[in-house]
Design goal:
This protein is mainly beta. The protein has four helices and 19 strands. The relative contact order is 0.21.
Length: about 290
């Protein structure tokens, strides 16, 4: 990991707290009541909410061959990954997020296109997170997002190299989410060849899918991987490397997104490479935590 300069000027970010939007370090009041979301990349499309297709194969609970998706068992590792809903769980889940370590112990990582409405030019209000969601069962309930932190490069131009967002959650029953579920670390400049495990929530399913494979270099700023069945709803899925069962932590080296919003084929996915710019965004998110 490259050291993060303490005096680096952070990229301009946008943060929303209720109806207060902060651009960089200057605040202004804005009306976000009408802000919604639009389907982008591998985020789910709510236009199909009247269709409820059954869970599809593969339905095995044992790991498949590399590159093939399977339904994972409930484990401590998988419990810190969950589905993102709009307002509550009455509608479709449309993206995936996971817990990462932070001083406030209350932070998620996902794709920027899951949390920023480019049509409205604002972050999406009223997001909720359902960790370890399965068939309507939410072991730790719903966690409300209180801040969304994205890079100015995404705000201005949907720069695929900045398709990363950090979400800060409200506490629940007097506890922070990391106290309940633990959290993974963030890996910066880990290179392009890594064995990772990706877990996400397709909108068409009510259970997660998982795939393991090696990442490849797509460009100097993008990772690529071959994993089956990662369709709409899996945007934001963590690319987890080096999980240590003793410390109960892994390292997130990417989130599904980036090029083509994560890919226009279900069996090929992308992620923005975590470089110094992502490290700066993470540091700024921690400062706002």
């Amino acid at each position: 990991m490259r050291p993060l300069a303490r005096k680096t000027i952070l990229p301009l970010t946008m943060i929303i707290v209720g109806a207060t939007v902060v651009v960089g370090y200057a605040a202004e009041e804005t009306d976000t009541a009408s802000v919604g979301r639009s389907s982008f990349g591998k985020s789910g499309d709510s236009d199909d909410s009247d269709q409820t297709p059954p869970d599809q194969e593969p339905s095995a609970t044992a790991p498949a061959d590399d590159g093939n998706a399977y339904t994972p068992r409930r484990t401590e590792q998988n419990a810190r990954i969950g589905a993102i809903f709009d307002k509550d769980d009455s509608g479709d889940h449309f993206c995936t997020a996971s817990v990462v370590q932070s001083p406030g112990r209350n932070m998620l990582i996902t794709a920027a296109h899951c949390a920023f409405d480019s049509d409205a030019g604002a972050t999406i209000d009223n997001l909720v997170f359902a960790p370890d969601y399965r068939n309507g069962d939410e072991p730790t309930g719903l966690w409300k997002v209180k801040k969304v932190i994205v890079d100015d490069r995404w705000i201005k131009s949907n720069d695929e190299n900045a398709d990363v967002a950090f979400l800060v959650l409200d506490s629940k029953n007097g506890k922070e989410i990391q106290d309940v579920l633990g959290g993974n670390t963030l890996g910066i400049d880990r290179g392009f060849d890594n064995k990772v495990k990706i877990t996400g929530y397709p909108t068409s399913r009510n259970t997660p899918i998982t795939c393991q494979n090696r990442t490849m270099k797509f460009s100097d700023t993008q990772l690529r991987i071959q994993c089956t069945d990662f369709e709409g709803g899996t945007s934001g899925s963590p690319w987890l490397a080096d999980y240590d069962p003793k410390s109960h932590t892994g390292t997130v080296i990417g989130v599904l997104g980036g090029h083509q919003g994560g890919g226009d084929e279900d069996d090929v996915s992308y992620a923005a490479y975590f470089n110094d710019e992502i490290a700066k965004l993470y540091k700024h998110a921690q400062d706002e935590d």
